[in-house]
Amino acid sequence: MRKFICLQWFAARGRRPYSRLIAGVAAIAMLTTTAAPVWAGGVFAPNNLVVSRSVYAGSASTITVGETLPPGCAAITTPLLSSGTISSGSANLTLTAAFGGYPGGVPAGTAIEVIGAGTSKTPDLTTTVSSGSGTAYVLAKKAGTAVANAEVLVGLTLPVLGGGTTSVIIPTGPSGCNVNGVFGGTGALFDGTYPQVFNNDGAADGSFAVSAPIFLDQLSTGGTLLNSLAIDPAMIDTSFSSKSELAVNKSVDGQSLTFMGYVGGPGFTTGANQLDVSNGNTPGLIDPTNPDVTQYYRAVAEVDASGNLTVTEGNAYSGDNGRAAIKGGNSLYYMTGNDNNGNLSKGQLSTTQVGVDLVNSTGAELLVPGNAPGDVPLLPPFIDMLGMLEFGTDKPGKDTNFRGLTIFDNTLYITKGSGSNGVNTVYQVGTPGTLPSAATTAGGNLGLPINILPGFPNTNASTTTDFPFGIFFANANTLYVADEGNGNIGTFDSTNAYDDALTQNGNPGGLEKWVFNGTSWNLAYTLTNGLGLGQPYTVASYPTGVNSATGNTNFPAGLPWAPAPDGLRNITGRVNTDGTVNIWAITSTISGNGDQGADPNQLVFVTDQLADTSNTPPPTAQFAVLETGGFGEVLRGVAFAPGAIASAPSSGQDCNGVYNGTFQGNLKVSAGQNCVFVGGAITGNVQLDGGNLSLTNTSVNGNVQLQSGGSFSIGPSVTIDGNLQAHNLPAGGAGNQVCDSHITGNLQYQNSGTPVEIGSGSPTCTGNTIGGNVQFHNNNAQGLISNNTINGNLQCQNDTPPASGIAGSNTVGGQKQGECDDL
Predict the structure, then answer these.
(1) Ordered alpha helix ranges (H), 32-162
(2) Rounded CA gap, 744 and 11, in Å?
(3) Residue 802's pLDDT band (boundaries 50, 70, 90)?
(4) What is each CA distance from 240 to 196, 413, 488, 771, in whole angstroms?
(5) Are 8 and 309 in contact (CB under 8 A)?
(6) Is 365 within 8 Å of 339 (Cβ atoms)?
(7) Distance between alpha carbon 87 and the CA centroid of its chain, in Å?
(8) Residue 503 · residue 436 · CB < 8 Å
């Protein structure tokens, strides 16, 4: 297990310029120096969001048409029949062949597959060697079989626990080795050009993937990009099209983020454009039946508020991917994922050592953060799996195909939402109120209970109707669950390929709200309004029309390239003091892409009423799109940024940090200070005179005065018992906003050159309630005033440009005057 420590600086993403200060982090220009500006507590501010993003870094030369897939798979398929004939007699079949890989002869009992010349990849004969040596072998008799001039694949012989051996074939074709010229294989069908490169998935290689670099984007809660942390691709990478990967989770103590990725084992490169890393083995758990021979650790990366990165390697999830990791209050990592890309049968998974090791190294896992450099990550049987599940006759290890996870009230919760085995539902791991400790003996945590939450789906039928992913507890009795959707396209009808997203067996993807009644959990409703299920959207430079490589019965010419939302994957949330809940989510997609995981997807936002337990979604709960991935980009996870949150400033002149408590007295924010309240109260007045002010879920007993300089963000869920006054803010400052706030007195914005948004039509900045007047006078920057309730007058005059907003959207008890007379 190795630990890396590196300070990574933030750099702006060139395709989207920074526009303004929001939530306490200063806007950063395009960086050209070696050092980046940071806020007072580091490069992350804990009231902002972090979205994990990957960018395809390949080109046409990344893969060559005809190239062997998975890479290196030819070594596993040998020895092949170099020449020979199978003849049938009255009692036996005889194979005459020379196998260079078996100089001592093929052992009796070894499995073989025989494929006749000029036939498809489907074996004409699957049998075993009865006896023989050298170049002549007697095969187990299969009636009616006579195959001449055949190609032969010889299976692997594995020891059986307790004695004896068993044979297993490495499959041919897309589920195994696709070698140009072997068994009718063609190798890669497409070169590395995005997005056509992912047409190789399934058609040429069931394990096809390309590694790519990772970025952590810091955004305001309204979706404004603030800066971006580029993770060193030589330290850890992701698999670009693996849609279940790269969740980001904030640690229980709030000081760091964690995510999972890949680190090359000995002889394997950590970096972009490596093929099939997500289905290769881990170095410490080699499955010889896995056609993908790469070796990559499934590693946990941890990033603190200053951008320091540590990477801890692990050997779990061999043959598949680690999906998510979270750091508990006990400083241990908890992970979810899946393993096993080999060809072991159900019986062999429980009777061979490699099979047992695979079954005990998947699902929910525990990993101890970093050891000394050069330490070897834990090997079987000491890989620390948390509990086991096996329903009926399911394939061992596949009922624990877990994806999302969270920790709430010191308890670990996980989800399963893919695969045909087991139950797609929400689970609780271990003893409620107690996080599992690291095992002190081999398999010490395998006996931990994994229980389905009462009321959630509990049968195998859920694998075709329910696809839970990320989860967020608003409180002990309210749980939001992201449903990804079933991923089908073009199967429901022959007129609109996207109709699948709207049907899904009556259970479309979206955001589910579950409410606990003291005995069981009950689904209140699923939020989908505004999500745009099945509505395709455009991405600049992305192909249009249909992808001829992905046609089906209903759409034989091909399925459409354009992606459309199908549901949600990872989520995070915030409970506000006004009784609302904000949820940010990453969308899933359907499309005609060869791998839908490579679709540019979206970050969306919705607000729900916490107390609403009816069976009907509130009409105000409308999703809004905050970001759409660009060409060659995918969005994966979302979480609040890490960082320290103090109770209150030490003095009225020292508000420079993030706070959640009560400050007694008056506050003054000066140039160079970033004053952020994410909760609590200020008993006096607040004055901004330079610097940056952000208030969320906060009450101010006095006035808020903004003058001469600085930027501000007020809301949501802010109460100001006095007036809000902004005067003489200079031109060139970042844009300001007042959203979802209650102001008892007047709101005045005058003589300023900085734009402001006072309510809007967007769910990210809803309207305000103002007890007095709103006065917008003598400004030289845009003012947008929409959807507010104003008990007094709405007065706008002498502004350049004139104040504007959504016509007729403001409810005014007095008069609408001047430029605002139609607002």
Answers:
(1) 74-77
(2) 41
(3) very high
(4) 14, 26, 20, 51
(5) yes
(6) no
(7) 55
(8) no
Residue 10's pLDDT is what? 40
Q: How many CB atoms lie within 10 A of CB 686?
A: 29
Burial class (CB in 10 A: 0-12, 13-18, 19+), 394: middle
CB atoms under 10 Å from CB of 382, counted, come to 16
pTM above 0.85, yes or no: yes
Q: Which residues pair with 670 in a beta bridge?
A: 689
Please state, in angstroms and as integers, the Cα–Cα distance from residue 818 to each residue in 94, 533, 796, 807, following that order. Answer: 99, 42, 5, 14
DSSP per residue, 1-37: -----EE--EE--TTS-----BTTB---PPP-SSS--
Task: Identify whether the C-beta of residue 734 lies closer than 8 Å to the C-beta of residue 709.
Answer: no
Which residue type does 615 have? N
Q: How high is the pLDDT of residue 793? A: 97
Higher pLDDT, 502 or 124: 502
pLDDT for res 15: 31
Region of poorest pLDDT, from 24-38, 228-242, 680-694: 24-38
Distance CA 542, CA 97 (A): 51
HSE-up of residue 450 (Cα within 13 Å, Cβ side) = 27
Q: Cβ(415)–Cβ(403) under 8 Å? A: yes
**Residue 158 is which amino acid?**
L
**Left (φ > 0), alpha (ψ -120 to 50) or beta: where does 632 sit?**
left
Could you tell me which of 654, 253, 587, 300 has the C-alpha nearest to residue 435? 253
The C-alpha atoms of residue 695 and residue 687 are separated, in whole angstroms, by: 13
Cα gap 496→750, rounded to integer Å: 53
Is the model's pLDDT at 567 over the cut of 50? yes
Cis upstream peptide for 195 (omega within 30°): yes
**What pLDDT, in 10s, does the model give residues 640-650?**
999 999 999 99
What percent of the chain is predicted at pLDDT more than 90? 73
What average pLDDT does the chain have? 88
The answer to whether 754 and 775 have CB atoms below 8 angstroms apart is no
Question: pLDDT of 466-477, one tens digit each?
Answer: 999 999 999 999
Where does 155-272 show beta strands of DSSP type E? Answer: 156-159, 165-168, 211-212, 214-219, 225-230, 238-239, 249-250, 256-264
Which pLDDT belongs to residue 127?
78
pLDDT of residue 111: 77
